[in-house]
Amino acid sequence: MDYKQEQVDVRGCQVPLLTGGQGPALLLLHGPGGAGRWLEFHDRLAEHFTVCAPVHPGFGGTPLPGWVRAAEDLALHYVDLIRILGLKRPLVAGLSLGGWIATELAVFRSDLLAGLVLIDALGVRPERPIPDLFIMDPMESIAFLFADPAKATAMMPQEMGVDAIVRMWEEQAAIARLAWTRPYNPQLRRRLHHITVPTLIAWGGADRLIPPDHGRMLAREIEGARFELIEGSGHMAAVEQPGPLAEAITRFARTIGLTAA
Amino acid sequence: MQLFFFHLMPWPHIPADFKNTWRSSWVVFPNSHYDPAIGQRIYNDYLDELQYADEIGFDAVCVNEHHQNAYGLMPSPNIIAAMLAQRTRRAKIAILGNGICLRDNPLRVAEEVAMLDVISGGRIISGFVRGIGCEYYSLNLDPTFSRERFFEAHDLIIKAWTEPGPFEWDGEHYRFRYVNVWPRPLQQPHPPIFCPSQGSSETISWAAEHRYPYIMTFTPMEALVRYYDSYRELATQKFGYQATPAQFGWTSAVYVAKDQETAIREARPHLQYFGERCFAIPPQMLMPPGYTSGASLKRFINARGSAGSRFDVDALLRSDDTLVGTPEQVGERLVRNMERAGAGIFMGMFQVGDMPHDKVMRNLELFADKVMPYLPRGGDTGNGKAAAPPHPA
Fold first, then answer.
1. Which residue numbers in chain B have pLDDT < 70?
2. Which of A183, A219, A247, B117 has the CB geometry, 3.0–4.6 Å to B124, for a possible disulfide?
3. Residue B154 to residues A83, B177, B234, B239, B290, Cα–Cα distance (Å)
4. In this complex, do B290 and A135 lie within 8 Å of one another by their Cβ atoms?
């Protein structure tokens, strides 16, 4: 499917943005490895939504600004982006780390959103510690992220030269800034009742980084939230099961009257 | 040249097969492998070695800071430095260095180093480091702010040492309503600052700007010369002065024996232990994300090959950079390498890996008898602030 690639100036920060599809606005906040990529998942969503997929500051080869100190800073950055793009109450969906940002955004500014979708989201302190991906070599971490490790190759650079290594490492640094000292916000759980928009929690059935029970807990803590298990997927549901995940999101949008039946 | 004895105080009982179970001898290697009863003897042996170095005429003894590892057992270098202040008489005590940005309160470094400087009669050299990548895992510190915190901690400590207190510090990473460090250091304006580093362009430029002696360890000579040349170039072209050999250090293991074959045979297992067990660090632990800039990482990879490349003890022993051999070989290679590096400070590791105490003492004795008298001695210990005492020979 066709999509448009542009740069948006958000208070001096140059944000690469991919836009495609038709329908109500869906702001899609990427997770690790997803920056600046239009994948099959995006195509599926674009059949029903106008998908806006920005790159978080510090990701996808952009410089990591000093003002990024926590996921909250990026949530406020997306408040600016929603205004700049003139999005009228978009559906906001966040994958993994992007789910953390989406949660923070919904806690403070539910009034800006039509709905919230959290997919294998970080952000709330889990019952069991999150494995330390930073200390693992790449092959090891793949086992925690993917149910089917073969799916990971689609995310890997074509050639693993010095430049590709440096690029991946810089992206890791952007993740580290948010998640190294604590891969969650200890305050977030008690704030979840501030989320007042319809919410879908979607979770890879084989997520070994944050098991699905954590998603079920989120669904209980956020009023009226529903929970969908994505079978055959690990933490990277958008890569492993793009069809079923996009369908779950579309179904959810329909039930809240966002898209036509 | 200035002769420093650089000690790591390694744990000498890492099992040969530990890598089958543990990714590194750092961070995750269980501390159940540390035996405090053996540790008691080892610490004191190591201290005896450093004390002996002072007695036989070394210009300085060195300590350093590393955490949660079997490579070097000085999580608090200032504690070892305090003992050396009592055990030594004339050698300088080089702390290479304190991980100033590893502390949430860098003023503790300002206080402790000032205490040491006063107690030792002004014999402290104060190295400042960021710690290697592993430290950021062990101390749960965000590596992406490492450099910013390092620069700010440095500025804070120097100001605490040189400007009258109390004053307020309101920085990006540190804030203190009252900065008023007691005691003040004996050396004025402050003890010499050294900058041990892994060669990031940002740190080289910063060290050149402040004229701080710059020391890289475990770096192949060709790469080291390139790094030092960039310091010298920056000094002349950007900062308007000529860098001197006193601003550069070169580090090597040293082992002396009556003939080359004996030296190699006796040193080999300990070098191998050091390379394969002490220094077993996968790339992501050596260079965690954001620890340096992408450009510096690229330079680092290009200079050293893959950071996780296999350690080859025989290549090391064959190399001209390695000071293992007869007194004549060691002396000649030492002088030649110092010239190649343009360095005035030699930091010798006379204890390596699991080398036992008696071997270390023999090594030091032979070096003192047969090598030291033929070395050009003198020069200053950087900053031009403190002249070295003349060599007794």
1. 305-309, 380-393
2. B117
3. 42, 18, 21, 19, 20
4. no
